[in-house]
Design brief:
Elements (H helix, E strand, L loop, with lengths): L6 E5 L4 H11 L6 E3 L12 E2 L5 H4 L9 E4 L5 H4 L2 H21 L4 E5 L11 H15 L4 E6 L3 E2 L7 H10 L9 E2 H12 L5 E6 H7 L2
Parallel strand pairs: 1-2, 1-4, 2-3, 4-5, 5-6, 6-9, 7-8
Helix pairs in contact: 1-7, 4-5, 7-8
C-alpha cells in the first residue's frame, strides 16, 4: 500500500543526504510541511518550518502533527572529536529524535544507519550503529525503516581524504559494498516513506541503489 505523508520531520537537513532529501520533500506536491530543525538557518520556503539552534535543545519545542520522520544524522569519530561525542550524536541524539517524533504522532521512522551495523561488532563505529538500530526496534514503532548504505558519495563541505580514496574503489565493488550517491539515497528514502509495511524493514545498500534510480 502507498501512502501520501503530508507532514514531515527531518533531522539532519544540512548533511550530505539530508540536503538532497530536503530539496526533494519541498518539491513534492503532496507534502504540506517539512519541520527541519537545524543549527544554521535554511533558505526560506512556504512549506518549510525551520527552528534554529542545537537540535537537543530544539526537540522539546517542536510542535505540530508529524506523519513520517526522517533521521539523517551521522558523524565520524574524527568529526565528533571522541568516541563519547560520536555516541552522543549517532546513538543518543538519534533516539531523542525518534522519541520526539513518536510524541508528535509519527507512525513511520526512517533512519540512516550503516553497512555492517552490529551491536556485537568489534568495530566501534559499527557497534554504535548496531546499538542504535537495536534501541529503535525496542521502541516498537508501527513502521521502522533502517537504511544501511555503503560509503556515501557526493560533495561534502568538509574534506575527508579517507572517504575520497575509498570512493575510488567502492564505486566498482559488487552488491551492497559498492558506494552509493547521496542523491540516490535521498530518492530511495522518499520512496520508502511512501510504502506502508508494518514492523521493521532493513534495507541494504544494493536495494537502496535500486530504489534510488
Amino acid at each position: 500500500m502507498h501512502l501520501t505523508p503530508q507532514h514531515i520531520l527531518l533531522a539532519g537537513a544540512t548533511g550530505l543526504t539530508g540536503e538532497h532529501l530536503l530539496d526533494r520533500l519541498l518539491n513534492e506536491p503532496t507534502v504540506a510541511r517539512v519541520l527541519a530543525p537545524t543549527r544554521r538557518p535554511l533558505a526560506e520556503h512556504p512549506h518549510l518550518q525551520n527552528p534554529v539552534g542545537p537540535l537537543a535543545d530544539l526537540l522539546p519545542q517542536l510542535q505540530g502533527q508529524v506523519d513520517v520522520a526522517f533521521c539523517c544524522l551521522g558523524s565520524t569519530i574524527r568529526q565528533a572529536g571522541s568516541q563519547n561525542a560520536f555516541r552522543a550524536v549517532d546513538l543518543e541524539l538519534v533516539l531523542a529524535v525518534a522519541r520526539r517524533a513518536r510524541e508528535l504522532g509519527a507512525r513511520h521512522f526512517i533512519v540512516i544507519s550503516a553497512l555492517g551495523a552490529n551491536p556485537a561488532s568489534p568495530v566501534f563505529y559499527n557497534k554504535v550503529k548496531g546499538e542504535m538500530e537495536r534501541a529503535l526496534q525496542a521502541m516498537d514503532w508501527p513502521q521502522l525503516t533502517i537504511a544501511r548504505p555503503s560509503l556515501l558519495m557526493g560533495p561534502r563541505s568538509e574534506f575527508r581524504l579517507g572517504e575520497r580514496v575509498a570512493a575510488l574503489f567502492l564505486r566498482w565493488l559488487p552488491g551492497k559494498y559498492r558506494g552509493i550517491g547521496a542523491c540516490s539515497l535521498a530518492r530511495a528514502l522518499w520512496r520508502l516513506a511512501l510504502e506502508e509495511q508494518d514492523g521493521v524493514r532493513i534495507i541494504e545498500s544494493d536495494e537502496l541503489r535500486r530504489l534510488g534510480r
